[in-house]
Amino acid sequence: MNSDFVLIMKMKRGDEAALERFVRKYYQIILNYCNYHCFDGSYAEDLTQETFARFFEKLSDYRCMGKTLNYLYTIAGNLCRDYYKKKKESLLEDEQKEPEDKAGKQEIDRVVEKNAIEEALASLPFEMREVIILYYFEERKLSEIADILHIGLPLVKYRIRQAKMKLKGLLKEV
User: Fewer CB within 10 Å, N side or C side of the chain?
Assistant: First the structure.
């Protein structure tokens, strides 16, 4: 029997210990996923907490028919998609800000490189960014990505290939 199924049945009956075990089991995975999407640690924590809040809000209706982690990824992915909509609006404001402290040249170069990577990832369409994060940062198998995103394996491969080409072009400009 699936351990998630047992945990969910206990949580539906109000078992607080099962709820705590469930959160401990998946919290770090979802937090990492959100961190890869938004690059802001505190906002990633908020997205993670919101993911679990939404899951528990609909717990009574939830049917354990597949991998629970995939369902959590779906919730988190939708929240991250909303985050990117907000982020695009404030992107121009962020580019105009000057660094306030006088860090060394190496530190500035590192920050510029990190920002270039973040901006390159952020400029990808959400579908491409999603597969890149799951494949490279979450180290998921192609078949797992297909299951998580509810798409076919050929489409996953296509999106990864397209995203890599687009990222290569974007990072050459830097």
Answer: N
